[in-house]
DNA sequence: TCCTACAATAGACATTGTCTAAGTCAAGTG
DNA sequence: CACTTGACTTAGACAATGTCTATTGTAGGA
């Protein structure tokens, strides 16, 4: 069922009810929950799970490269389980909806050497901002 | 001296010592201070300036489009006075250094209609991440 | 079954940001 | 220049998000 869970198991993770629940909550496409949203959903399945455990578990998943941390709004970080398919994000400035998107081209190639200031660049994040269709109609 | 200050004056801002100091602290290129860093520097020039005023003033500058808010790390927001020349950011993952950069090409053109989900896109932010030269040598 | 190291818990603490009520002052008016 | 007014500033409480610690619990191997 959960690809995420399978991959984590294969990395020698000690499997606990808490970790299983967090992984299950994160499963799916276009999932971008905050840590507290993950906690709220986890609690419905495992009432005694603590906030600290959710934060720890999410942090470990990020370290293992199985989940990506996204900061789209300067508020709470969001967690994106779609870590194995490179993608960017499209964000609605009104309701905060987030979609995964796949731009053509390589943004890294667009940065000339003279603009790299000697940095070794490892990663490029692109955030498209706009208004989603449902917010546009309820203008 | 401060272009920023001149533009704000021209918009009917009531000019106060506090606002002047905040604008002066922000003046320059490759400036990306957090609100508390702005406050710390402002205090050296105007000891009685409050944190709330710094937050308010920065917020107003952002609303007026004279300063850009940048969230590069999911921690404190940073404030970039270089609002009138479109640019992107290059961030060192170790020390947090930030440089303004100017990629070639238009990232918006790279997003096909089928990947826009009906959104009206108004803005694209690109963040290049890597290691800066001085962090690379002190590996 | 028992042990042990790793994991989970509650809650204090830290950081960043927002709000409120009261006092202060910039700048227009006479 | 003095007056007035509404915008501005202030201190500190509050809120949201995230981290840490000391203690208790438990997964999984021996």
UniProtKB/TrEMBL annotation, chains A, B:
Task: List the GO molecular function terms.
Answer: DNA-binding transcription factor activity; transcription cis-regulatory region binding; zinc ion binding
UniProt cross-references to InterPro entries, sorted A to Z: FUR (IPR002481), Fur_C (IPR043135), WH-like_DNA-bd_sf (IPR036388), WH_DNA-bd_sf (IPR036390)
Q: How is the cofactor bound?
A: Binds 1 zinc ion per subunit.
Residues the entry annotates as binding Zn(2+): 92, 95, 132, 135
Q: Name one Pfam family in it.
A: FUR
Give me any GO biological process, just one. Answer: negative regulation of DNA-templated transcription
- What is the top-level taxon of the source organism? Bacteria
* Key words of the record: DNA-binding, Metal-binding, Repressor, Transcription, Transcription regulation, Zinc
CDD domains linked: Fur_like (cd07153)
Q: Which cofactors is this protein said to need?
A: Zn(2+)
Query: Family per UniProt?
Result: Belongs to the Fur family.
Q: Which PANTHER family match?
A: HYDROGEN PEROXIDE SENSITIVE REPRESSOR, ZINC UPTAKE REGULATION PROTEIN
What's this protein's name? Transcriptional repressor
Q: What organism is this sequence from?
A: Streptomyces gardneri
